[in-house]
Amino acid sequence: MLATVLYFLLTLAILIAVHEFGHFWVARKLGVKVLTFSIGFGRALWQRVDASGTRYVLAAIPLGGYVRMLDEREDKVPPDVAHQAFNRQPIWSRALIILAGPMANFLLAVLVYWIVFVAGVPGLKPAIGDTLVNSPAQRAGLFAGQEIVAVDGRVVRSRSEVNMALLRRVGDSGEIVIDARFNSSDVADQYRIPVQRWLAGEELQPPQRALGIVYWEPDWPAVVDQVQPGEPAAMAGLQSGDLILAIDGETISNWQDAVDAISARPGATIMLALRRAAGTLEKPVTLASHEREDGKRIGRIGISVQVPEMPAHMQVTLRYGWLNALARAVSETVEMVAFTLESIKKMLVGLVSTDNLSGPVTIAKIAGASASSGLVSYLQFLALISISLGVINLLPIPVLDGGQLALLGVEAVSGRPLPERVLLWFQQTGMLVIIGIMVLALYNDFSRL
User: Fold this and answer.
1) 3-state secondary structure of 353
2) Cβ atoms 22, 43 nearer than 8 A
3) What stretch of H or E contains 40?
4) 332-386 pLDDT, tens digit each
5) What pLDDT score was predicted for residue 113?
6) Please, which residues have CB within 8 angstroms of residue 417's CB and are 6 or more apart in sequence?
7) pLDDT tens-place string over residues 113-125
8) For residue 40, which of 184, 199, 263, 445 sits 20 to 30 Å off, Cα-Cα?
9) How confident is the model at residue 269 (pLDDT cuts 50, 70, 90)?
């Protein structure tokens, strides 16, 4: 838990510092006097003042930051420095200063992706282990043993690339085109899967699973990894490393056998046969009853599986040379910006459920999980969140950078700034919108706990 919080705070600090530094750097380059550069809000934990009079602050509440510039609308400005006031600058200059924050986030994403693509991105081959009965994938003719090589004409080499290509189609109607081949063949066959408002309004699940594609996995032994505190397994005394041999006398050959047996017994008391260290023992466990979204009740025990390493022939590392990695980093950032904008559009028109909106709790959990998965996973997460922050700040909502740019556009067209009372109304409206979004995101976070 502590590690999760620390990685969350580290992620926030990096993203906020980069965003605010964009505003700060461009403001100074354009001759605007910067009064304060703050990471966080509230009471200052650390501060110093440089030779130009700028105050640098590290504040107690690390949920944002700001750059405060000299501005006649906020304070009385001496005539000898009035030319350095933000409000005195031409519209193009103010627009560049505002735009610099989101652009800094995009540049950070390019830099991080560049490092990642040079280092190499580990992944797993998108080999099909099975197709679900009467699923869209099975009806289209996809087979177990095939490997997906393209989605909608886009070449894919790993499961994450397949999933990303499929996520782009959420809410769409038409056909999803999948190219797949058997390992023994160099020729791929093309399969067309008709969709109608695919997954529209639903909470997102693994997209390949929604088509009925089950990736190949080796048989996982039913070895306990983590035991969740307060859950039935913990109360019965199960430990990490326990191997489940049988449930109610039925032999358990792998993890899926254990999942099926436990899911089929909601609320029941079962007898587990375990191997622990060199010996065997039996433990009675009273399962919890958990209701799924479809209303069906399943048993829950509160353990996770110890995941074995994938065979070498299923692993793939996507690595590029320095120049190709830079081009790929720029391309990835542009594609993710477009994907984020398209997702926001689909959410506004109801093609993507607002249940998918995440707040700080979910972000913290993902930050911790990605960090524990290795540096490359964490850097990919950092780049994605940096892009999201940049895009969100460009939305035309007052109090965000995009709202300020919209107001400058109005000023450019009308030839004068909006009246103070109108600006105040816009800011109050924008604050209500932001608070509403945060409340919804937090609600989604806690409903997932």
Assistant:
1) coil
2) no
3) strand 34-49
4) 999 999 988 888 888 877 777 766 666 555 565 566 666 566 788 889 889 989 9
5) 95
6) 407, 411, 423
7) 999 999 999 999 9
8) 445
9) very high
How far apart are the C-alpha atoms of 13 and 16, rounded to whole Å?
5
Beta strands in 229-333, from DSSP E residues, in sequence order: 243-247, 250-251, 269-276, 279-286, 288-291, 297-300, 303-305, 315-318
210: left (phi over 0), alpha (psi -120 to 50) or beta: alpha
| pLDDT at 210 exceeding the cut of 60 | yes
Q: Is 20 a catalytic site residue?
A: yes
∠ CA 202-144-175, nearest 5°, is 45
Task: Answer yes or no: are the C-beta atoms of 32 and 84 closer than 8 Å.
Answer: yes
Largest CA distance in the chain: 88
> What's the CA gap between 240 and 226, in Å, rounded?
6
For 42, the token pair is: 């509230």
Q: Which of 20, 147, 161, 332 is catalytic?
A: 20
Domains and CATH numbers, the chain: 89-120+321-449 (no CATH), 128-215 (2.30.42.10), 224-305 (2.30.42.10)
How many percent of the chain have pLDDT more than 90? Answer: 57
CA distance 289 to 326: 50
What tokens does 255 get?
A: 């993890």
Q: Determine the Cα–Cα distance for residues 337 and 339; give it in Å rounded to an integer.
A: 5
The DSSP 8-state label assigned to residue 135 in this structure reads -
**Residue 203 burial (CB count, 10 A):** 13
Say what the pTM is.
0.81
Q: 378-425: per-residue pLDDT in tens?
A: 898 899 899 999 999 998 888 889 998 998 998 888 888 777 777 778
**Strands of 311-353, DSSP E:** 315-318
362: amino acid identity, one letter: T
Taking the alpha carbons of 125, 131, 135, 140 in that order, is the dihedral positive or negative?
positive
Tokens 């509440």 map to which residue?
61
CA distance 246 to 243: 9
CA 412 – CA 409 distance, rounded (Å): 5
Residue 177 confidence (pLDDT) above 60: yes
Angle (CA) 118 125 257, round 5°: 135
Kind of pairing between the strands at 297-300 and 121-124: unpaired
392/340 Cα distance (integer angstroms): 9
